[in-house]
Design brief:
By secondary structure, the chain is an alpha/beta fold. It has 15 helices and 8 strands. Helix content is 49%, strand content 15%.
Length: 385
């Protein structure tokens, strides 16, 4: 084995070389993606101008697509629908409305090279960013907003087609970047209403979690969709757990890509007694163990005491010295919001209550909820609190 033939110093040096390779690959990927976006922007701008001036109609756009295919058969991605997507890409993102959203939620003066200001109340560390954020944020009206470079063109098309408000669109641009989402993964994030489940009130999180991990509101959702399990309305905790283990890859995508699955029914020996945590994960971003307790019934305050006991055992006997305090999540099908708020208000352990849903909410209902949400959503300035 290679590991047996190198010493610690060489291993560290080799790791530095690998890091150099990965950095340059990321830079290359970023450059290729930006050129793809700039191409769509330039083509969209040109065609948009012709359409708005009524020089061209839809028939001319079809002729343009056929012309490109005939004259330059090696150039792909310029079908009639693709060209109209580029027009949409330019028209929507070049609008004054979108530029104002960038100015409000991503003020350049408040940004460092490693942090994004999101919704004026959450700081998101851009762990996978290859550019200083001060270079990414750009608010000059009519110009290409560099924040678009945080995700791919195909992702932008889905965001534009499926998200109604510019706030929601900006959120998914940032979220796709943070989680490094591929197109199908982004589609699911939109379908499972990640915009709402991450940004609404965090009364389901304990004081201990919010104080120990200030970024937890953008790390954990309050609702997780497990439609991929095809669970019947009446099901056991065992069926839920075994289903999640069998579909762990999909469950990880729902939780977030920073989660690493460690074990099921993880044994915790305390005194002469033995206990088992349902699911144990490790969160790379927070550098902490995460215990997930599954419940088939509505949340009860006594469930919290059990979870806090498990966290104490993990911190004393399992957590390494370089890791942060363990986090606990109770995953249940339903929870009374008032009961949850009472339970969380005095809990100083890093815990939270989340619900799981067996089926996706219909698109029409989701859109209605989004409309209602946007009506009372206003950014908060925590500095005044």
């Amino acid at each position: 084995m290679v590991e047996h033939n190198i010493n610690i110093l060489q291993e560290n040096q080799f790791a530095e070389v690998v890091n150099i390779i990965q950095q340059h690959r990321c830079h290359a990927s970023y450059a290729v993606n930006k050129e793809s976006l700039l191409t769509a922007w330039a083509v969209g701008k040109y065609v948009s101008g012709k359409l708005k001036n009524e020089e061209w109609g839809s028939k001319v756009v079809s002729l343009l697509s056929e012309y490109i295919r005939a004259k330059q058969p090696d150039i792909k991605g310029f079908s009639r629908s693709s060209i109209y997507n580029m027009v949409m890409f330019y028209d929507e993102y070049s609008s004054d409305a979108f530029q104002k959203i960038i100015e409000v939620y991503l003020p350049a003066k408040s940004l460092s090279n490693t942090e994004l200001t999101t919704w004026n109340y959450s700081n998101v560390k851009t762990m996978d960013s290859n550019k200083p954020i001060s270079e990414i944020v750009q608010t000059a009206s009519g110009q290409f907003p560099n924040v678009l470079c945080l995700t791919t063109l195909s992702n932008h098309y889905d965001i534009l087609c499926r998200c109604r408000s510019f706030e929601e669109r900006l959120f998914y641009i940032l979220y796709a970047h943070k989680e490094n989402l591929k197109n199908k993964e982004l589609q699911r994030a939109i379908s499972t209403q990640t915009y709402e489940t991450l940004l609404r009130s965090k009364n389901n999180m304990s004081k201990g979690l919010l104080e120990t991990y200030p970024t937890s509101p953008i790390m954990f959702k309050d609702t997780y969709f497990v439609d991929f399990l095809n669970l019947p309305q009446k099901h056991s905790e065992s069926k839920l757990k075994h289903g999640l283990i069998e579909h762990m890859k999909q469950f990880i995508l729902e939780l977030g890509k920073d989660f690493i699955f460690m074990d099921q029914e993880y044994s915790l020996n305390v005194g002469a007694s033995s206990f088992k945590a349902d699911l144990l994960f490790f969160h790379r971003g927070l550098q902490a163990l995460v215990a997930v307790e599954l419940k088939k019934t509505k949340f009860h305050p006594r469930d919290l005491g059990q979870l806090e006991f498990y966290l104490e055992a993990l911190d004393r006997d399992v957590k390494r010295s370089n890791e942060n305090p363990s986090i606990g999540i109770i995953l249940c099908p339903d929870a009374d919001k008032v009961v949850v708020e009472y339970a969380m208000s005095r809990s100083m352990s890093p815990t939270m209550i989340a619900e799981y849903k067996r089926i996706l909410i219909p698109q029409e209902q989701m859109q209605q909820q989004l409309r209602e949400f946007c009506q009372f959503f206003m950014p908060e300035d925590k500095s005044q609190k």
